[in-house]
Every structure is written in C-alpha cells, then in structure tokens.
Amino acid sequence: MKKYGNDYRQSGKQFEYTGKWYGTGLSQEELKKHGILNTVLMTVALLVYFASLMVNNAGSRIFWILLPYMVIVFPAAYGIMGGVSLVSFCRRQEGRGVRSQVIVPQEHAGHMTRAEYEKGIRRPARCSMAVVILALIASVTDLIFLVRGSGNFLINSELLFLAAAVMILILGSVTAVQNWHVKAKFTIFS
Fold it and tell me: How does the average pLDDT of the chain come out, rounded?
C-alpha cells in the first residue's frame, strides 16, 4: 500500500493516521446493507456473464462484439472486491473485525481513512460505471450485428446473448445509481 504510505506517521510501536478522513450521515448498518447489496448485484451480473459465455452464437465470435463483453469481467470482479471491502469496514466498526495497529482519534471514530474510502466507496462506483459502459457497447454492437443480418446465425442464440448483455446492463445501472447516491453522501474531513 505504497500509495497511502504518506498518510501514516509512526508513534512508538503504533501508527497514527494523518491523512484525510471521510464521513457520512449514513449509519454503519446502512453502509453494510449497501455493501452487501452491491456485492450481490455484481455477483449476479458476473454469473449472468459466465452463463452467457456458454451460448454458442455467431456474434460472440466477432471481435468488436466480443472485446467489450470480455472486458466486463474485470470491473465486475473489482466491484465485488469493493463491496466486500465496505462490509469488512463495517464489521471492524462494530468491533467484530481484525484490529489494526493504527491509532484512531476519538473525533474520527466511525470515519473512513482515504484507503478505506477508495476501496469501499470509490471503487464500486467506478467499477459499476465501467460495467454499464461495457455492457451498453456490447449490447449495441450485438444489436447492430442482428439488424445487419450478415452471415448464417441462429436468431435464438443471438437473442439470448443480447438478453444477457442487457441484463448485465440493467444490473450495472442499478448498482451504479446506488453507488453514486452513497458516494454523494460522504464529506471530507482533514
């Protein structure tokens, strides 16, 4: 975690956090529910993605359709990691998580450090937007392939592939809206 190294100062055997703090009016329970919901929605999108890869359709063998669709796996998996990070932050706040060597001042109890904010709030928001953009591109390109009607293909398998891309688009959109609403409720404390 070199990126956050300058946010800490050693104080004896423990460390003191000197970076920015991020706080919200949401309760820990609301944040935890959001983290769980984000993880579930992104996991469902990833399962739909893997199931759609089993469809043997002609459109999935065309580079400009396949490329954005294949890249969806990365932001979806990274978004799941962000949701899990938010849930683990909430568990630590409840006292059931792993203790750290970092001293947290009393006035910042319940606030997130920059690393926690970026992993638990910013990462899922950005990843869900990436899923939406990639799924939209894949849906539009597959729709163009269907409308053009070039080549021999089975319409049922193409429609199934398109339906999976649209389902991922919808799941990503729901997740993106929720993530950006939660992100907007955070304030920065120095």
Answer: 87
